[in-house]
Sequence to fold (415 residues):
Amino acid sequence: MAESWSVPGSVESIVCVNPVRNVVEDDCTEALTLRDLSVELIDTSTGDPTRFGTLPVHPAVTEAILKVVQSGKYNGYYPSNGILETREAVAQYFSRPQAPLTAQDVVMTSSCSGAMDITAMVLCNPGQSILLPMPCFGLWKALAEARGVIVKYYNLLPDKGWEADLDSLEGAIDSTTAAIVVVNPSNPCGSVFSRAHLKAIVDVAQRHHLPIIADEIYDGMAFSGHEFVCVAEVSDSVPVLSCGAVSKIFMIPGWRLGWILIHDRNGAFQQQVRPGLGRLSRKILGPCTLVQAALPDILTNVPDSYKQRNLEFLERNARKCFEKLSKVDGLTPFMPAGAMYMMVNIDLERFRFGSDVDFIKALLIEESVFVMPGKAFCAQSCFRVVLILPDDKISEACKRIAKFCSKHDTAAQSN
Ligand SMILES: Cc1ncc(COP(=O)(O)O)c(C=O)c1O
Fold:
């Protein structure tokens, strides 16, 4: 019996560490207070598209939710795996000729995070491993490790448009591997895999009879000259669970609505995974019914031109940022092909910083520019810029980054 009132937390609550929150809350809290508070903070650290008002919500989205609230029909419990009409609408919207879906293949979730949690849970036991790309959106690690699932990484190759290193992928597979995660388009890399590359990844999964979890929250978000292809489209035999959400497609991450698309192949998910997904969806009795009920109208009434306009804005920002940071000695930006992020490599030796966290903390203190270090994505010597800033702020951020780098550039000083 405990002698005093100090209630122990569970193991899961202790090991569940999201690396992004770690960086923001632990590594940068002090730096945020040490910076010159009279200078405007330019914060491009988080991927919240609502932050600067540059990617406004389409009026059809607002109309859809108002209509649902006013109807008074969606205040009760609905099936935990989602409202049937919503699942039908999602199935129709995301069906491709090579990857058709019905309502039976859709589970509605609490945003993409909820989909990630359930898919990892349904495929992986504690002690088994899950293969994640490196760099990777940090939540995948947090969710897996919280459940005692071992995280292993395969490398992405920056000089090849962040394609997966197929040897590293195949080399990471062993008898403990339960699933391969593919994040496409990628946060944090901004990459979009070609059809041929996705097929090559699927071929690796096929050789080892491993299912793929596709994090496709940035579905369709490919810049000009690039094409978004979903993993299921190129898979004849490998079963795929695809995770998605309204968050980045319709720019409403706070609405917390997502889905799992079940692309079964050869009935591999029939016996255990499908019923397992149903049971796991009952753990929290499904996502918000109001947003679910609004989704069919959102999917129908938001025109493609809305998405196109957002993509054009993001691509313009990417080009601008790429062009400006390419001129900074010691930095190597990688031009993204989609999503809303750009990765920038840092020549740490040149700047004499011990790590990317040290670099971004100093940048924050000296120039009031906040970017996310590679550490948040289980990567090193790099940072990520979120491409949602208005025009003037992106120019100002790049200007301040250039000034900071020039001040710390030991190569320039020794000349
Ligand atoms: C790759 C990726 N997956 C999942 C998520 C989580 O999305 P949600 O906010 O819908 O839970 C994000 C959010 O930024 C993301 O970038």
